[in-house]
Amino acid sequence: MSVALDTDEPLGHICDACGSGLPTQGWHVPYQQMGYYNGFTDNLDVLLSEEEPKYWFLCHDCIVKFLTLFPRLGEFLDQGEHPCDAEAPCCSWAWKLAEDGTLLVANADGWVAKSK
Fold it and tell me: Tag placement on the chain: N or C end, fewer CB within 10 Å?
């Protein structure tokens, strides 16, 4: 269960996986809604509206670890999922705008222009 903090952390939550502050590139995952009746997370109580869905809050670094551990799931994401203004990409799913307005996406060599 996520712990709401009375701090300046974005969204007022911490990462449920590592306990760090949740950056703007985090995920808010409704894990009970991902299940099904008699599934890993049985969502019958949610479907019957007897219970509010529960969520996981994941920080950027834990998402990268998750997608590295399960690379096939990362294939469902497009290049350029979130902004990154750093000199080098923070991860394989980052994007930024070049000074001339070109959309750059991360790859193994750094920043490259996104192909159409």
Answer: C
Q: Is residue 93 predicted with pLDDT exceeding 80?
A: yes
Q: Based on DSSP, count helices (H) and strands (E) in the chain, helices before strands.
A: 3, 6
Cα distance between residue 83 and residue 60, in whole Å: 12
pTM value?
A: 0.70
Euclidean distance between CA atoms 31 and 39, whole angstroms: 12
How far apart (Å, rounded) are the C-alpha atoms in residues 78 and 82?
Answer: 10
The stretches of the chain forming alpha helices (DSSP H) are 44-47, 60-69, 71-74
Give the DSSP H or E segment for 82: strand 82-83
Alpha carbon distance 73, 66 (integer Å): 9
Identify whether the C-beta of residue 94 lies closer than 8 Å to the C-beta of residue 84: yes
Q: How many whole angstroms separate alpha carbon 33 and alpha carbon 52? A: 10
